[in-house]
Here is the input.
Amino acid sequence: MFNKKQSELSGLVITYAFLGFGLIFMVFPYVWMLLASFKIPAEIYNRFLPTQFTLEHYRMLFSLGATGSTNPFVRSIFNSLVVSSIATISVVFFGAITGYALARIVFPGRTLLNNFILFQMLFPTVLFLIPRFLLMLELGWINTFQGMFSPFMISAWAIFLFTQFFKTVPQELIDAARLDGCSELKIVFKIMLPLSKSVTIIVAIFTFMGMWDEFLWYLIVTKDYNLMPLSVLLGLFTRGEYSSYPGIQTAGATLLTLPILVLFFVFRKFFTEGISMTGLKG
Amino acid sequence: MKKSKTFKIQERRIYRFVGCGLVAPYIIYTIIFWVYPFIWGLIISFKKWNIISPEKEFIGISNFLKVIHDPLFWISFKNTLFFMIVYVPMVIICSLVVALLLRRIKFLQAFFASGYLMSYVSAGVAYSIVFNLLFSGDGLINVWLSNLGITIPWFSSPKIAMASIAIIVVWKYLGYYSLIFLAGLQSIPTSLYESAEIDGVSNWTQFWRITVPLLNPAFMIILIFAVMLSFNIFTEPYMITGGGPLDSTQTFVMQIYHQTFTALHAGYGSSFAIVVAIISFSFVFVIRKMVERDISY
Here is the structure.
């Protein structure tokens, strides 16, 4: 008996040791990135821990502009925020009202729409890249904010999640609200959303993260440095003017990573929950 | 009684309208940004068009034939397969091991789970920059390896560049897939293991006879995600290698991007995208047929 307990304990110690060892590998690139962005150039490649700190890379990033007078990097953070926020609000808003109708109201064509949403999720985005770009040309939306976010304003995935969750809300609550004279929109936003807080947060953070990280679409529809989101501006500068300035590159990478990392630490419970949900759905 | 019935019918009619009204934005949006581009993409794939000129000549299936005869199409195909051969087994083994370890612990489980998930939230551009520098010829990894007397030309050797990209993508998705596996593991009833234990079944046999078969849905999802991802890699090779050295990291999406937005062959790019979508669908279809099993406890 004692032996079994002892071997269980040592097994547990080994488990923690392995997990801890693996975690070092997972976190290492982040730590290196953060440190490198404060290192003097000579130490970036060959030393892990810096001997002296410098803010030079961040200063360079923010002071130098390709266009001279204006600084595109400060603008690009603002651009990323605007584009990502608009898409996030829109995905949650339309996801919630569409999901509510699909889950709780009987209307002609409901089953068809439900199936169509599942069908839509099967198609890879690569199929839409070129024709959507041509659509933006037709609309004159190249180099505009709406050109960047318009293809991401309604998400089949978000509608699907909301539909699944709204099915579990008790009908009495909806009936009572209707008797009180609540409009359907008010029911969605005053009753359904607050009752599905976790799914709302999951949809919002995953959408925001996806928009913030998006690269290929922004690369296609933006040509003007002052309109580019941070991901594209940093990508282009890393391949171009800053290709031999690893310090500035890592400073930019840190700026691109930090907001999402903060979001992740605040909402980490919802990240893990959201992923487990996809795992169980299949 | 009668009154309430007419009220109900009337009410139902009202909600019919309300329902249609609530889904109307989705329908209109989907027609403009999904159905219309989808059809437009199909149409231009049968045309020769350079975006700028107003002329769009109908050329039948010539674009598709050109895709099949394009050496870069086959190079991208080969590179994608190479990526998959490295990426899929590596990410599945690593994330399954992490999930199995996570299942064994209670204390700090959430801490480790989110620790491993951290890499998932890194932006494509940012982690490409970081690994490009870390794995470069005189980068820190090679500085450390040189103490052991070796250096590895991660991104500069055409033989291993694609494998190096696969490794950094494993880093990004390992935690994500572990959590899917962990959710699958937690849905397996512990009573199965308990009765196996009583029957004296070894841990190894338990793993292959209970864990692996019952994890089938998780394997399925991860395989499909991983395969779809393999067909869509763009940011990492674009940022790190630009498709080189010697085209060893050219991918399908890089070709589509290049054909359409650098060479301006919109019709050709569109046919290319359709061929790639068909191939990726076939892969997913075959995997489903091969791997998917109905499970019951």
